[in-house]
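Subject: design request, 362 residues
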């Protein structure tokens, strides 16, 4: 009997490709003839070295990174990066611009300020509860970096195009849309992404950093909080989160070999999101919360005519094996997270259910 698998719309931790889960299961007791589980081998063993080296190589290929970029797998989540970035790059009077597009940007700004760093919030969409991505922003010419959140997991917005910051590198929290579409990585000084949305299990955060930014690192930081500690030792200064990195490596392999790369992934993601947004555009029952030109292809946020109906909707969806549709506790409403691993079939099943629910309750 095959195991029960629901249509998983969780925001994070989130769905993983079923083929990856099966691959993990099949080699869990004996990893590649080692007679041990990947959770039992040394991180210094040839088995794990091959895993991490392959993961790094795949990140470089998928993002088309040149030799200036280093790839590291860190702990502490994306939340740790909120502090590490200003600690490493904003010293000796250097400043940075931040764009505030939601909960996670707000937290990144808070950490930089907490550290007493000089940062400027050059744009914010807080005036309309973060329902849009700001346009026509003037950036500071002398900033060391411009921090953005590429996809706003809670508010359901996403940068369709990245802003033009001239010679100032972008630094981006891509936790919830990394590897969902191709983009020009050469405009970024640093990209970070907690794995548990679009890349793997919780416990690891991908960091891609360009060498010119690494030169700004001060000498007096705790060893674990310096990027070079990790970039110079292939993420193995201390014991890395081996199982999370291994799962991420299999997801990256799936992206390259099964999906066929980021262009193909983006086409699938656009199709999935369009199924839901077309429904909103034709319906008086469902209302998307994000402005049309700022809609996220990863986290689709919406409201029903009343909170009672939203409760009923989430409960009936759950009874029909569709999970994770409750909006973030800070905003309420509903949210369908449709990351890379959520299939077109799952989204189509949800849309069918939503049409039937609107007919019955509208
Ligand atoms: C989930 C999320 C975070 C927080 O990630 P942690 O790994 O839990 O620290 C930060 N930024 C964005 C955009 C997220 O979606």
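Subject: RE: design request

Done. Sequence follows.
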């Amino acid at each position: 009997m095959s195991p029960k698998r629901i249509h998983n719309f969780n925001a994070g931790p989130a769905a993983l490709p079923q083929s990856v889960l099966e691959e993990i299961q099949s080699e869990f007791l004996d990893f590649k003839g080692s007679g041990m589980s990947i959770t039992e081998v040394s991180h210094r063993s040839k088995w794990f070295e091959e895993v991490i080296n392959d993961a790094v190589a795949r990140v470089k290929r998928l993002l088309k990174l040149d030799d200036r970029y280093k790839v590291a797998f860190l702990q502490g989540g994306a939340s740790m990066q909120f502090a590490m970035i200003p600690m490493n790059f904003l010293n000796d009077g250097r400043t940075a611009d931040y764009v505030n597009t939601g909960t996670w940007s707000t937290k990144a700004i808070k950490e930089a300020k907490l550290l007493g760093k000089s940062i400027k919030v050059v744009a914010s969409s807080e005036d309309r509860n973060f329902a849009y991505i700001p346009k026509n922003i003037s950036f500071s010419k002398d900033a060391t970096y411009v921090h953005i959140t590429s996809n706003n997991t809670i508010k359901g917005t996403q940068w369709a195009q990245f802003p033009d910051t001239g010679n100032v590198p972008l630094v981006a929290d891509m936790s919830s849309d990394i590897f969902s579409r191709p983009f020009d990585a050469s405009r970024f000084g640093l990209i970070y992404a907690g794995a548990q949305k679009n890349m793997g299990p919780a416990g690891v955060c991908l960091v891609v950093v360009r060498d010119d930014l690494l030169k700004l690192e001060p000498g007096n930081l705790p060893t674990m909080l310096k990027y070079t500690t990790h970039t110079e030792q292939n993420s193995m200064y201390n014991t890395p989160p081996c199982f999370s990195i291994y799962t991420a490596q299999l997801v990256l392999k799936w992206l390259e070999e099964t999906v066929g790369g980021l262009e193909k992934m983006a086409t699938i993601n656009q199709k999935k999101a369009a199924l839901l947004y077309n429904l909103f555009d034709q319906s008086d029952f469902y209302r998307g919360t994000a402005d049309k030109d700022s809609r996220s292809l990863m986290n689709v946020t919406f409201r029903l005519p009343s909170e009672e109906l939203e409760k009923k909707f989430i409960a009936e969806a759950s009874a029909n094996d569709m999970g994770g549709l409750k909006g973030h506790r800070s905003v309420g409403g509903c949210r369908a997270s449709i990351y890379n691993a959520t299939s077109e079939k799952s989204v189509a099943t949800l849309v069918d259910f939503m049409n039937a629910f609107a007919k019955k309750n509208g």
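The CA atoms of residues 19 and 258 lie 10 Å apart.
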